[in-house]
Design brief:
Length: about 200
């Protein structure tokens, strides 16, 4: 389907890629306000926004299902100084992609849950006659979780995770800071085994 208004246009699509097993949903939106505002209201509105979304879902006969979701947004605009010395422009960009898979094989007592994702955020700002200032952050993470039923009254849960974050900014002597890059990393694991002692009582 598609739609349009004086300030926004949008397209949305959905359907099967493989009937009964793989399907998708997607949409794209784009602002028109920067082009139509001067005509419709006689005033300049110097900003715009756009976004795109996609989701995929798959399931199989061997008791598993997976999903992937992605979204991207962009916002940008312009502001005017009160003293008339010029305009300042800005832009924000966001991107996120993530996926999850759940599996419980019919001949196994272990349930598997896997998650992975990456996200990015960035922004830029420039004033007339000044150097551009910018910053960005990129993050990547993974998780692996397993649950095993060792008996009707007990189960064991364990998993591991990893996260990485890259930060980059260039403020061009703003607040005494120029260029910096940082990398953050952390990882961990867990094991737990709740035991059902009776109805309503778990240790």
């Amino acid at each position: 389907s598609a739609s349009a208004s004086p300030f926004l246009s949008a397209v949305q699509m959905e359907g099967p890629l493989r009937r009964g097993k793989v399907s998708f949903l997607g949409s794209i939106r784009r602002s028109l306000v920067g082009r139509t505002a001067p005509i419709l209201i006689g005033e300049d509105l110097p900003f715009s926004f756009n976004d795109a979304f996609l989701k995929l879902h798959a399931s199989g006969e061997d008791r598993y299902r997976c999903g992937v979701t992605a979204i991207r947004t962009t916002d940008e605009g312009r502001t005017s100084r009160d003293n008339g010395e010029g305009d300042a422009t800005f832009r924000w960009t966001n991107l996120s992609v993530g996926g999850q898979c759940l599996a419980l094989p019919s001949e196994s007592k272990t349930r598997l849950d896997v998650n992975a994702g990456v996200s990015y955020i960035g922004n830029r700002f420039r004033e007339a006659g000044d150097a551009q200032r910018r910053s960005s952050s990129l993050q990547f993470n993974t998780e692996l979780n397993l649950t095993s039923n060792v008996s009707p009254a007990a189960e064991v849960r364990w998993g591991i995770f990893t996260r990485m974050n890259w930060i980059n900014y260039n403020l061009r002597e703003f607040l005494g800071v120029q260029v910096s890059k940082e990398t953050l990393f952390n990882t961990g694991a867990y094991v737990e085994g709740p035991y059902q002692l009776g109805e309503g009582l778990r240790v």
